[in-house]
């Protein structure tokens, strides 16, 4: 038996109990309200129990769970988890219908739903509701993703015995969907909505000049699962190959004078250098060659051990640690990892990247949140390079530090902070703070004031906001639930990492607010059947899907946008399957649906730009040689003849041509080479000084089929155009 309790009956190839999944999405500015309904029908002659394990974004505040059984609504009660389990098993043993919803003990982004004693012929619609903050993209857009893929998680021995991930669920290919998925979204905003798009990448705005200080450590997942494709599209790039290309770009983009190191990890780990090395031409070349040889050959995903090795190294004075973590997130005990990052949060920031469909949002968001960094997810057609370079720009740019809030309230009122402490905000990010006012509310209409103080580029600044103290009527309690979720995230580190006293606090907060935690569960029991369900209970485990390397056969029937009503409807096709397993299985949703405000973005093409970038030296310059001229599409003699400063350093001329080539041929990926260009122009300024070399004669030689117009570079008194 999977659990203690009554016997479960297994049969071979039964009908499928899960018929459809419908999602209703309501987006209001930066908050999403989601209602997901799972429709079941028992077409067999025996009672059933269906187990459904599914992913959900770790920021989701689940506040409602109910079942509609043959037209009768049963609203679940939130209870302490062990109590809920006992009541569920007791209800099943007495023949009552029972429904259980719980969060995994060891990962905040995995849930399981049990539908028990579904008697023959019965139809049940199980609905859960949650609210969630939407992540802000680097161009100011908001993105909503409906999680769908639940990857297998690498299990840490002895720590996750009670995880619902241990349920032996069969897997099925993504392209074999035996049921329908429908999604209806309503999007409203007090501001103008520029556009709505789905599954596209971003163009990114300009950021300020970078700093040369910092210790940059790159932690690269080389476990076996990194051999998987980025998505289920035809010709999708392998995760490890995309990660290698991204790491090469990051290495080339680092500023002179910083320190760096690279770790590769799986079941074991290796580091490129015994300790972080100063960024020079020699160390960069050595690292680049080793990155080219990286393979996904290190077995499981054990990230905690290399993290401990990184944290035990002494700090480098004047060079704060910036940790970049690249992983597909297939880790079981995420709370242990998050806790270790949190313990070291004062000495570093963590920029995390979830690679491919199904990366753990609990792990990726958790380690970024507790360290003051940022989290990104690379799925569908997203370019990892774009998002990684964006985070590097965050790490190199100025930030608002020493953040503090002060409150000016009437006598008798106090503000109690519910959000975790945040000490830094990067440009392009936002800060959301939840607080609870306690005490005696004034009888007359009055207001309060909150002051945000921070330091920016050495200057002390502040902003003040005045607000009314009279509460507004709002039956949805969206802000209250998000505030409770924020407080639970601060305290709840799973069964293994949370003290008993803190567990009791979390249970109390969860039950009072109605927001699910890892120590509570929703349970609903229907005791009003005409007669209790009789006979042994057949056990049905609903499996999670896997991504096949072939093109997904599922096709979207319709995707319609109605600008006037802000309504989006998307339905997937229905396809039957007959799997040759010990029993009939049902896959969960096969593909993520994302709704965002963002722009279409193209890639590097045939990676010619990457070849050019790999020729750049650590100081930002290029050598004038045959390798460069091959990329430029000309010959060395013609390039030398066109040099306006024939007696000067040919590297300056080569660097100008390389940068102009990027402007002419890599415009669509400019955000990925902006830091490289910045290094090059800085080197040209430092190298040329007050050069009086004449400007380049026009027209320039045609290189790779395009004239270098209208890009311009100023070097001293010389204008290269």
Automatic annotation (TrEMBL):
Source species: Peromyscus maniculatus bairdii (Prairie deer mouse)
Q: Under what name is this protein listed?
A: von Willebrand factor A domain-containing protein 5A
Give a yes or no for keyword 4Fe-4S in this entry: no
What PANTHER family does the record point to?
VON WILLEBRAND FACTOR A DOMAIN-CONTAINING PROTEIN 5A
Residue ranges annotated for the VIT domain, each copy included: 2-132
Give the keywords, sorted: Coiled coil
Q: Please list the coiled coil stretches.
A: 277-304
Q: Where is the VWFA domain?
A: 215-396
């Amino acid at each position: 038996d999977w659990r203690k309790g009554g016997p479960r009956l297994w049969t071979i190839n039964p009908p499928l109990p899960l018929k459809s999944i419908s999602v209703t999405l309501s987006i209001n500015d930066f908050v999403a309200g989601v209602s997901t309904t799972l429709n079941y029908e028992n077409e067999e002659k025996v009672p059933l129990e269906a187990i459904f394990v599914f992913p959900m974004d770790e920021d989701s505040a689940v506040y409602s769970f109910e079942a509609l059984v043959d037209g009768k609504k049963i609203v679940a009660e939130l209870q302490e988890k062990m109590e809920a389990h006992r009541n569920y098993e007791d209800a099943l043993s007495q023949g009552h219908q029972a429904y259980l919803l719980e969060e995994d003990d060891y990962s905040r982004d995995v849930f399981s739903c049990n539908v028990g004693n579904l008697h023959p012929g019965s139809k049940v619609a199980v609905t859960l509701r949650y609210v969630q903050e939407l992540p802000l993209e680097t161009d100011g857009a908001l993105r909503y993703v409906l999680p769908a893929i639940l990857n297998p998680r690498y299990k840490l021995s002895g720590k996750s015995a009670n995880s619902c991930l241990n349920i032996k669920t069969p897997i099925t290919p993504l392209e074999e969907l035996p049921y329908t998925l429908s999604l209806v979204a309503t999007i409203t905003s007090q501001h103008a909505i520029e556009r709505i798009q789905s599954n596209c990448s971003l163009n990114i705005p300009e950021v300020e000049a970078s700093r040369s200080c910092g210790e940059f450590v790159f932690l690269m997942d080389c476990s076996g699962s990194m051999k998987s494709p980025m998505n289920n599209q035809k010709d999708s790039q392998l995760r490890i190959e995309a990660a290698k290309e991204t790491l090469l770009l990051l290495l080339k983009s680092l500023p002179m004078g910083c320190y760096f190191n690279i770790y590769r990890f799986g079941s074991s780990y290796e580091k490129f250098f015994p300790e972080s090395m100063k960024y020079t031409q020699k160390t960069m070349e050595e690292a680049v060659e080793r990155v080219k040889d990286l393979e996904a050959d290190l077995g499981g995903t054990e990230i905690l051990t290399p993290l401990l090795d990184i944290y035990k190294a002494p700090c480098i004075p004047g060079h704060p640690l910036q940790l970049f973590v690249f992983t597909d997130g297939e880790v079981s005990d995420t709370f242990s990892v998050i806790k270790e990052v949190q313990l070291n949060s004062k000495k570093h920031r963590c920029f995390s990247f979830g690679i491919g469909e199904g990366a753990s949002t609990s792990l990726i968001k958790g380690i970024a949140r507790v360290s003051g960094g940022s989290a990104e997810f690379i799925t569908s057609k997203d370019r990892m390079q774009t998002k990684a370079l964006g985070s590097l720009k965050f790490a190199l740019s100025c930030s608002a530090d020493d953040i503090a809030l002060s409150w000016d309230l009437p006598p008798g009122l106090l503000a109690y902070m519910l959000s975790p402490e945040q000490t830094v905000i990067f440009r392009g990010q936002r800060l959301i703070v939840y607080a609870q006012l306690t005490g005696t509310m004034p009888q007359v209409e009055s207001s309060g004031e909150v002051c945000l103080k921070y330091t920016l580029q050495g200057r002390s600044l502040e902003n003040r906001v005045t607000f009314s103290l009279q509460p507004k009527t709002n039956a949805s309690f969206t802000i209250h639930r998000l505030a409770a979720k924020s407080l639970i995230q601060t305290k709840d580190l799973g069964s293994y990492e949370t003290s008993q006293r803190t567990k009791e606090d979390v249970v109390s907060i969860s039950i009072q607010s109605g927001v699910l935690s890892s120590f509570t569960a929703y349970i609903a029991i229907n005791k009003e059947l005409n007669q209790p369900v009789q006979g042994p209970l057949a056990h049905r485990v609903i499996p999670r899907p896997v991504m096949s390397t072939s093109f997904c056969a599922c096709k979207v029937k319709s995707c319609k946008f109605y600008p006037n009503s802000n309504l989006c409807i998307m339905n997937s096709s229905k396809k039957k399957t007959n799997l040759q397993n010990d029993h009939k299985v049902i896959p969960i949703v096969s593909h993520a649906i994302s709704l965002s405000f963002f722009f279409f973005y193209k890639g590097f093409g045939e990676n010619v730009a990457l070849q050019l970038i790999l020729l750049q030296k650590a100081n930002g310059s290029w050598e004038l040689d045959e390798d460069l001229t091959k990329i430029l599409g000309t010959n060395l003699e013609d390039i030398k003849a066109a040099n306006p400063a024939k007696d000067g350093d040919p590297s300056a001329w080569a660097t100008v041509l390389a940068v102009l080539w990027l402007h002419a041929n890599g415009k669509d990926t400019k955000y990925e080479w902006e830091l490289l260009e910045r290094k090059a122009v800085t080197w040209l300024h430092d190298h040329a000084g007050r050069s009086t070399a004449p400007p380049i004669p026009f027209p320039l030689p045609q290189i790779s089929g395009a004239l270098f117009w209208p890009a311009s570079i100023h070097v001293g008194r010389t204008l290269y155009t």
